[in-house]
Design brief:
With about 240 residues, the protein is an all-alpha fold. The chain has one domain (about 1-230). The chain is elongated and about 65 Å long. The longest helix has about 45 residues, at about 1-45. The protein has 9 helices and no strands. The model is unreliable at about 90-100, about 140-145, about 195-200 and about 215-235 (pLDDT under 50). Helix 1 runs antiparallel to helix 3 (about 70-85), helix 3 (about 70-85) crosses helix 4 and helix 3 crosses helix 5.
Length: about 240
């Protein structure tokens, strides 16, 4: 029993790490390229405004999604909570119950060495757990279906909890953050149910397509609703 719990905790860690690689690495690589390009221009022309704006935008992406940034902090916090539940460290905790254990773990994971809480990372972590709870309370189903449904659900939950706005009111940067978090949530939810990192990657890809491309028909959404048995919310526009 203990070995099985430890193996599940390892799977959760693998899913989270693969999710970060799948979802965030392309975004970070592009930001690094943009930064290097802007810096090269500014070495020759220090007053180039376009390059300055490009550099500023690239740095914001790196600060948001890079190692130590709020998105990765949130993912690490959620991973720690789920691993604690898997290993039995939180015997009284449930994923979405916002128990004292969960609140404490998220706060610890999003607090720096000086005792300052990264409030946005904290909110992101709670939003991610809300998405996982919403899926986990449904019936076990194919991980692909989980990704499609939780992609839409994630966008709705994260938008409301993080920004208190409707999707059409979000800035482009906020939409990008919601999209990234939705993919990560889809991957975690799908991977936990399928018990495989391959399932997590597939679910994350489906979640991304649902959120960004709005390709599901009303009939497809209705079918997924029956299969997964969780509320379907309007997707991020």
């Amino acid at each position: 029993m203990l070995k099985a719990r430890q193996e599940m905790a390892q799977v959760i860690g693998d899913i989270a790490n693969n999710g970060i690689t799948l979802v965030l690495k392309p975004k970070l690589n592009e930001a690094k390229r943009q930064k290097e390009e802007a810096e090269a221009i500014l070495r020759v022309d220090t007053s180039n405004q376009a390059a300055k704006q490009q550099l500023d935008a690239a740095n914001k992406v790196l600060d948001t999604y890079g190692l130590g940034g709020k998105v990765q902090l949130a993912v690490r916090a959620v991973t720690g909570v789920l691993q604690g539940i898997a290993t039995g460290d939180a015997s009284q905790a449930t994923v979405g119950g916002l128990s004292p254990y969960i609140n404490h773990q998220i706060k610890e994971a999003t607090t720096d060495k000086d005792g300052n809480v990264n409030l946005e990372a904290n909110l992101m972590a709670h939003a991610l757990l809300g998405v996982i709870e919403a899926y986990a309370t449904g019936n076990n189903a194919a991980a692909g279906a989980a990704g499609a449904v939780s992609g839409e659900l994630a966008a709705s939950i994260i938008t409301k909890q993080l920004y208190q706005k409707s999707p059409e009111q979000l800035t482009e940067a906020q939409k990008q953050t919601v999209s990234a978090l939705s993919q990560l949530a889809s991957g975690l939810a799908g991977g936990l149910i399928s018990d495989s990192t391959a399932g997590a990657i597939n679910s994350a890809e489906i979640g991304k397509r649902v959120v960004e491309n709005n390709f599901l028909s009303e009939k497809e959404i209705a079918i997924l609703y029956v299969v997964v048995n969780i509320p379907i919310q309007k997707k991020l526009a």
